[in-house]
Write a structure and sequence with these properties.
The chain has eight helices and no strands. By secondary structure, the protein is mainly alpha-helical. The protein has one domain. The protein is elongated, with a radius of gyration of 16 Å.
Amino acid sequence: MHDILQYLARHESWLLIGAVLGRQSCLPIPANLVLIAAGALAHSGHLSLPTVLFLSVLTFLLAGLAWYDAGRRFSERMLHFVCGHTGNPESCAGRAIAAFSERGVRTLLLSRFVIGLDALAAPLAGRYGVSVLKFMAFDGLGAGA
């Protein structure tokens, strides 16, 4: 176990960035566990908490901007691409659209905690024409939560 902690402490930046980007790319990577481990190492003094927070939020924002732009450019195709791997793609897209229509950009604050909505919130923000600054503010707050 001690070797794993040393490895995490030595490669903190790349592991955080890789885990978050992998998760934001819809890969089955346990980014939450990496973030929890990084937080525990920061609490024990092995990592810098400001560095962990900065890298995590920045990586979430950059990945979110890519999804936002994809939603803005490809709208319906993007939703069906993301929902295409579910049992009922039409229902998946419909529920996500209903959630975003009802709550608007505030959906970004909670989307990280709802499986499925986390992959659709940023493209929906792009689809509905949310301004980039507003998107970044709400997505940043959601990523920092």
